[in-house]
Amino acid sequence: MDQPNDALPPQYAHLPGLVRLKTTSDSKFLISVGNNEIIRKFRLDRDLEPSSFEAASANGTHTDKPVWSIAVTATRVATGSDDGSVVMYSLPTEQMLSIVYRCTMAVRDLAFSPNERWLAVVSDDLSAALVSVNDPAHAMRLKGHKSPVRSVTFSPDSSQVLTVELDGSIRVFNISPEDASPAYTIPSAAFVSRLNASHENIDFSPKVSWHPDGSCFIVPRDDGDLIAYCADANRVNHFQKQIFQFSDTHSKGPRDVVWSPNGAYLASCDDVSVVIWDVRRQSVVNVHRYDGPQSLAWHPEKNCVFVALTDGCIHTFTGAVPEKLYKEQPSHSELVVPAPRTPHQHEMQEGDDTEDDSERNSNPALDTLANEDNELFGDDIRDRRRPFSEDNEDEEDEGGENNDWIENDDGNYFTPKRRREHRPASHGMAPQWNPQALFRPMRHKFVRPGSTPWIDNRCYLTLNFTGYIWLQKQDTHNVVTITFFDTGNHREYHFTDYEGFDLAGLTNEAAFFGKSCWDENIGQESSVLFRRHGSSRDSWRDSFPSHDAVSNIALSASHAVVCTKLGTVKIYTLHGVPIRIFRQAQYPIISCSAFDDYLFIVRSTEIAHPVMGSNGGGLVYSLENIVKNETLQKDDSVEISPNSKLLSVFFSDIGAPCVYDSDGILLTLTNWRKPMQAKWVPILDTRRISGREGRIEQYWPLGVADGKFHCIILRGAKLQDRIVYPAIPLAVTSEFDLRIPLRYEEPENEDVESEADSDKENEDLEDELADLEDNGNDSGKKKTNGKQSKLSTQERERMRYEEEFICQRVMLDTLKDSIALAGSDSAKAIAKQQLEVEKRILRLVSLGCQEANYGRVISLVQLLEQDVTMEAATKIALRHQLTALANRINEIRESRMATID
After folding, report:
1. Which of 312, 271, 255 is nearest to 66 (CA)?
2. Spatial distance between the Cα atoms of 867 and 62, rounded to a whole number of angstroms
3. Which residues contact residue 316 at a Cβ distance below 8 angstroms, ignoring those fewer than 6 apart?
4. Residues 6+ apart with CB under 8 A from 683
5. What distance in Å separates the CA atoms of residue 599 and residue 622, rounded to the nearest whole number?
6. I need a labelling partner for 148 at 20 to 30 A (CA). Which of 274, 541, 678, 881 fits?
7. Are 789 and 727 contacting, i.e. CB atoms less than 8 angstroms apart?
8. How far, in Å, are 651, 681, 690, 691, 840 from residue 659 at the CA level?
9. WDHD1/CFT4 second beta-propeller domain spans which residues (predicted)?
């Protein structure tokens, strides 16, 4: 554990001296500043590929002063230097935006609020201020400081800001739009014994770090200890009190302290080592020696920590959390800590059960606490996010102390085990979590149906049955091309786009474009544009502010829909008249699709609960009737597998909601018109298509129509390792019959050229029966592609017919929910589909008769609903000379007719 584990070579970023590190909120970049007046920008997805731009001084020219502080968002960088200037830069363009604030002395620390509305500035001149990011002229002073301010940080919900003075005092302020008022102060006596740091020496500045759930903040002491204070005002007995500490590792004051993205681990460094703490166990899990570490940053997606040294180098410490701990499954998703210690906690109460020495040395305090007095997780969200127990508050109020926590000889703390019968009941189910969420990016990205990323300066914006829209990137603009599959109605056309549209919807009547708030557009205003094909007279546009920019759009034959990053859903007619607006803000909207008067919205719960996870792979959906202003389904799970990613969201040709995931599974929603009755049904597993022929390929979804899956086949040698995208120009589309994946035995032995699949569906049922009988007589002659199978030909036939039967039945259910058909047309389509279902049953009846399986045949006959198919089943039994079975079928038929009469 003494040698650093650097998978990447060190980056020589700055001259020797102070270096500060920050990662951007979108997890794309690592930003550093230091003594060479250069701002370094490293791409996290390209093994720290660097770029740099020069820092500016108070007069806007290149500064010759070291840059001592930095704050970053996804699109902005703010720096503070020795000359007292605070300069804002655009991260995408690497250009200076403005000088947003000036101090009379050196700027010591900067911080953006998590909502990106405020920039906090602190300096040696006793001043601290909150500067509006959008209007730097609007600044609020944080008053009351008695000594120079060295550190500043925001609470995760942006409601409070915390400052640390040179004497060690902590001041917390409540933030409102017009004022920042003092909330409370923790005096220096409660913080540190002595803070030996001069105005000139900034190597040791008490960097206070707030836990990601907002429940506490960690404070480094100059004696090397790390103290956690409760920040949850709802925990009255614990509020502002010390709740736990990490000791006996650092010999002097830690230079930097940072929480892991989900708060499960803590990284700290002094001038000789980097220490990784397991917060739940309150123990050190890793120590690595470096020469002069001074600034830390967790990688937002991987198990590694970036370490800046005094020689100006940036090291990548991989495997920060040992592999064993990284893979295990802790029982709670949030910080679980003991109650505040009292002066008498070293005394053991009489009657308590004790532990042996091995149990004490393992320091199981938090593990025991999670199941005893400090049951943290209640039924409501407020209880789930509070990490401190209130079970023993009455006891603490009466006695002024809590004797459950005992200090052993080596300074650690443990909880004596109690008898099980004395344990209070839990207030609710503790949520489970995956510790790899600590380093894992959000699995479900924002899904734009049919769109692809930029490849060779080209990309698709949308792709459906109508056609596709694609972009060609130029130096100052994009060329938009709209291509149609049916060239008889519309011809391909182009236009020049100077706005940077990255969203699109396409129908036979029009195209709908949007500029989203994601990627390089973060922080910018966004807009939408509606264009009718062949005419500009009915075109219209709308704009949205940067704080509620466009995230997704959808277009149907009757409506245009815009979703924003704050969850607002705005619905227009095709002439640009807004007719509905509502908000679904609990979880961010990641995709939407529209069909006639219906809207299908998918949202991700992972963003709101990155640690706790969720059912259905972290996705929920809603279905809205736009015209009737009705919610048909709300916040139900999208049932894709936990490890897959959502790739596409669309409606079928008859209006059935469908999703397609990275596992190649196509699902459709049935019974969605009935509250609480909707079910996701897998109707195709594309892995069976490629596996049958031994090919390596993926399938880019186009849609579902006429009972077939239409797609673009993507072939390549390494497709199993990544998601690939269709090339431009578009390849020829392919289609596959829907097949319910009932069984997975030997998919490569499926009959590609099955006669049953090639049978024409004759209207005359007697012809169909003859085909069934012929299939049964010729079944032993069918091809198996030359491969030996453990399954007999009849077994393979039965498997195929069962899949066809279930598939046709699902198609019948979706047809009954169809929103594309009405009146007599709908009734005829349903009757026709019902006949298709019963034909598949008759095929299974024929196989059952061949096997003389009477019970199976009778159960199949009972699924028939039409008299003509019941009669056909009787004839099939007679053809196999099963007279008794035919009589039994006739009895069932006559019984039904009697019931009808």
Report:
1. 312
2. 89
3. 6, 7, 8, 10, 48, 299, 304, 305, 306, 307
4. 666, 667, 668, 704, 709, 738, 739, 740, 807, 810
5. 8
6. 274
7. no
8. 9, 10, 20, 22, 26
9. 447-742
Residues of the chain with CATH 2.130.10.150: 458-652
Q: How many helices (H) and strands (E) does the chain have?
A: 13, 53
Tokens of 53: 């731009």
Task: Determine which helix (DSSP H) or strand (DSSP E) holds 53, and give its type and residue range.
Answer: strand 49-54
In which residue are the tokens 């917060």 written?
Answer: 279
**Rounded CA separation 98/788 (Å):** 74
pLDDT in tens, 130-183: 999 988 888 899 988 888 888 899 998 888 999 988 877 888 998 987 788 888
Band (pLDDT 50/70/90 cuts) for residue 691 is: low
Cβ atoms of 270 and 252 within 8 Å: the answer is yes
Cβ atoms < 10 Å from Cβ of 717: 7
Query: For residues 347 and 430, what is the distance between their CA atoms, to the nearest angstrom?
Result: 31
Q: Computed over its alpha carbons, how large is the radius of gyration of the chain?
A: 33
Sign of CA dihedral 4, 9, 14, 16: positive
Which amino acid appears at position 125 of this protein?
D
Q: What's the pTM value of the predicted model, to 2 decimals?
A: 0.53
The CATH architecture annotation of domain 458-652 reads 7 Propeller (2.130)
Neighbours of 307 (CB within 10 A): 28
Burial 116-136 (b: 16+ CB within 10 A, else e): bebbbbbbbbbbbbbbebeeb
Q: How many residues does the chain have?
A: 901
Task: Kindly give, in sequence order, each residue whose CB lies less than 8 Å from that of residue 250, ignoring residues fewer than 6 positions away.
Answer: 224, 225, 226, 268, 270, 273, 275
Q: Which two tokens stand for residue 113?
A: 């609020």
Q: Which two tokens stand for residue 152?
A: 């500043």
At 409-468, the pLDDT tens digits run: 344 333 344 443 433 333 333 333 343 343 344 556 788 888 998 888 899 999 999 999
Let me know: does 91 contact 84? Beta carbons within 8 Å: no
